[in-house]
Amino acid sequence: METTVDEAQRKAEVLIEALPYIQKYNRKIIVVKYGGSAMKDPELQKNVIKDVTLLKLVGFHPIIVHGGGKAISRWVEKTGGEPKFVNGLRVTDESTMEIAEMVLGRVNKQLVSMIEQLGIRAVGISGKDGDLLHVHRKYSDGQDIGYVGEIDCVNPKVLHDLMESDYLPVVCPVGFDDEFRSYNINADDAACAIAKAVGAYKLVFLTDVEGVYRDFNDKSTFISRMSVLEADSLIRDGAIGGGMLPKLENCTDAVRAGVSRVHILDGRIPHSMLLEIFTDKGIGTMFYPDEDRDTL
């Protein structure tokens, strides 16, 4: 009996710890960029969807922006092609664009189905719907990499309309240019642009790393909280490289545009999003405006 009471008390303590955060974030918009290994593993996928569903049930207005790069590569190979990348960006010819849109659409509806099974109404859209994501062709160091889009503007009306009607929007990163040609968009870029356009309070990147390190090879240099100025300093010093660099730039860009908090989390850890948002210590790296330094 004592064990049962102890377990119940621990659960109650967790709920009490979460209470001020639930009160603080009530009715706030949170954009979740979902991809990587957390999307590949079925069990982790269920956990992420449960977390987002819980966020909605406790008062958040969540928006999911998802990727699907690994699945796109698999389908390119299945059709006899070979995935090609330039500076981390997928070279996207017409046939690859068709595959990307097919795969992303399939992933989109799978996520919608999982959310609906948990009793939440969801609507899956692409950046082409309602002219949500308007783009132009992106070049990598002057090199043409095909149908890869750079976001010009975001029209958030369709997202606000869905949220006001109590739907959870699920967005796949495909957009139109001026000639209504389809373009694949980096999901991190899409999530950042959408967070800024809808006035999100939080932007969460679920990744395949724990967060940001001053020295990735030294786990003791993990950074749990970082101001925009501190992030800029890391970038200038060359301490951040590889795939983390554009993610860090997206984080600082979003904070400067008014997103109050941006988080980089390890999506491979079950319920990492809840641990970061609703506990005092958190689990990933949080970015915040410089003027908030003394209030944390």
Describe the structure.
The protein is an alpha/beta fold. 43% of the residues lie in helices and 25% in strands. It contains ten helices and 16 strands. It is globular and about 60 Å long. The model has no long low-confidence stretch (mean pLDDT 89).
Please provide a brief summary of the model:
The chain is an alpha/beta fold and 296 residues long. It has helices at 2-25, 37-40, 42-57, 69-78, 94-117, 157-164, 187-198, 228-236, 244-256, 272-278; strands spanning 29-34, 61-66, 85-86, 89-90, 122-126, 133-140, 143-154, 168-172, 174-176, 182-184, 202-207, 212-213, 222-223, 225-227, 261-266, 285-288.
Outline the fold blueprint.
Elements (H helix, E strand, L loop, with lengths): L1 H24 L3 E6 L2 H4 L1 H16 L3 E6 L2 H10 L6 E2 L2 E2 L3 H24 L4 E5 L6 E8 L2 E12 L2 H8 L3 E5 L1 E3 L5 E3 L2 H12 L3 E6 L4 E2 L8 E2 L1 E3 H9 L7 H13 L4 E6 L5 H7 L6 E4 L8
Parallel strand pairs: 1-2, 1-11, 2-8, 5-8, 11-15, 14-16
Antiparallel strand pairs: 3-4, 6-7, 9-10, 12-13, 15-16
Helix pairs in contact: 4-5, 7-9, 8-9
Shape: globular
Q: Determine the mean pLDDT.
A: 89
Number of helices: 10
Q: Give the class from helix and strand content and strand pairing.
A: alpha/beta
How would a textbook summarize the main sheet?
A: 8 strands, mixed
The percent of residues in helical segments reads 40-55%
Give a count of the beta strands, DSSP E runs of length 2 or more. 16
What's the helix-strand series? HEHHEHEEHEEEHEEEHEEEEHHEHE
Unreliable segments of 5+ consecutive residues: none
Cα distance spanning the termini: 40 Å
Strand content: 25-35%
* Strand arrangement in the largest pleated sheet: 5-8-2-1-11-15-16-14
Whole-angstrom Rg: 19 Å
